[in-house]
Design goal:
4-stranded antiparallel β-sheet
Length: about 160
């Protein structure tokens, strides 16, 4: 009976530690890789969204219109296939698929901010700004996992007596 209690305590500790790490890294990843409209207003000079200007603009000018586009929910419920026609060909990254459209808001070698249109059932469901690739959260996640790995190995090796 004693060994069963010790085993259950071990399982609970392991589950709690795993859940805590999952919540910590998940939260850090989310907030490090998403940019709210308010944050975009702080980072970039703001302009009112204008379709023809956006279509012909470079990343910096598009960035200045992104917060207004998101706050005004300009393209929510728009048919997905109309987005390239209205805003120009997507200039984003790997997130661009048949149903998602992405537009660069910065021109860096890594960790670009991308305006992302998510399509569900043929209509735009959400628009947000996210960081593409190579962000600090990826390095922190791997650092955290490197630290956590020995702890998990100890927990997994320790057997109840």
């Amino acid at each position: 009976m004693k060994s069963l209690v010790k085993f259950l305590i071990f399982i609970l500790r392991f589950a709690f530690a795993f859940l805590a790490l999952f919540i910590l890294f998940g939260t850090f990843y989310w907030f490090n890789n998403r940019l709210t409209a308010l944050e975009a207003k702080i980072i970039w000079h703001q302009k009112k969204f204008d379709e023809p200007s956006f279509k012909s603009a470079g990343p910096q000018e598009r960035a200045s219109m992104a917060a207004n586009l998101i706050e005004e929910k300009k393209f929510i419920d728009t048919e997905c296939e109309k987005i390239p026609e209205l805003l120009g060909q997507p200039t984003g990254d790997y997130y661009h698929q048949h149903s998602n459209y992405t537009y660069r808001l910065t021109e860096r070698e890594s960790a670009n901010w991308i305006l992302t249109f998510i399509c569900v059932n043929g209509k735009i469901e959400s628009v947000f700004i996210r960081k593409s690739c190579c962000s600090i959260s990826q390095r922190v996640l791997f650092w955290g996992l490197d630290i956590a790995e020995p702890i998990f190995q100890i927990l997994l090796k320790s057997k109840p007596k």
